[in-house]
């Protein structure tokens, strides 16, 4: 019954959503690293892949705090964002605009994650789950730093390169 659902349910469902999303992202980042033309782009995707592994472990700790099994729930939003990224990899392969496109896809992923973690942190706080707040804040800080780094990469090279005619 919908009437019986509370913030606990929302929190658990959203945790499952981001858990699924992070696992999809973990699989996608190596593909993006392979696709990227610049060394900095490759390195940044691989570094975030390693961070993502740690983020998945933190989410598993939050499931543990809840006394629930770590289980993902299909997230169509992240599937769509990743599918768009794959489209860019295909359609811009070999072009000067590829890295700018990859960065834009990666930033769409980061912003999705930032939205989810922002909400989860607020809800964990409301539910009095201080340890969960701390774990989720660590993930959020990594997503924000990654987003910032991608902006810098785009400004420092990828966008100018993309603007030039091949
Ligand atoms: Fe993440
Ligand atoms: Fe991320």
UniProtKB/TrEMBL annotation:
Biological classification of the source: Bacteria, Pseudomonadati, Pseudomonadota, Alphaproteobacteria, Hyphomicrobiales
PANTHER family tied to this protein: PROTEIN YCIF
Record-linked InterPro entries: DUF892_YciF-like, Ferritin-like, Ferritin-like_SF, YciF
Protein source organism: Rhizobium deserti
Pfam entry (one): DUF892
Protein name per Swiss-Prot or TrEMBL: Ferritin-like domain-containing protein
């Amino acid at each position: 019954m919908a009437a019986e659902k509370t913030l606990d349910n929302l929190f658990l469902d959203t945790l499952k959503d981001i858990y699924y999303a992070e696992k999809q992202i973990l699989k996608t980042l190596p593909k993006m690293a392979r696709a990227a033309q610049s060394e900095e782009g490759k390195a940044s995707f691989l570094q975030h892949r390693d961070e993502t592994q740690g983020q998945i472990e933190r989410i598993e700790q939050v499931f543990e705090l809840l006394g629930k099994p770590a289980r993902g729930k299909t997230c169509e939003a992240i599937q769509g964002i990743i599918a768009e990224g794959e489209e860019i990899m295909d359609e811009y392969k070999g072009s000067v605009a590829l890295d700018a496109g990859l960065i834009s896809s990666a930033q769409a992923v980061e912003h999705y994650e930032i939205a989810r973690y922002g909400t989860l942190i607020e809800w964990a706080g409301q539910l009095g789950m201080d340890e969960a707040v701390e774990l989720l804040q660590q993930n959020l800080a990594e997503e924000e730093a990654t987003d910032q780094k991608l902006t810098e990469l785009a400004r420092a090279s990828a966008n100018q390169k993309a603007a030039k005619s091949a």
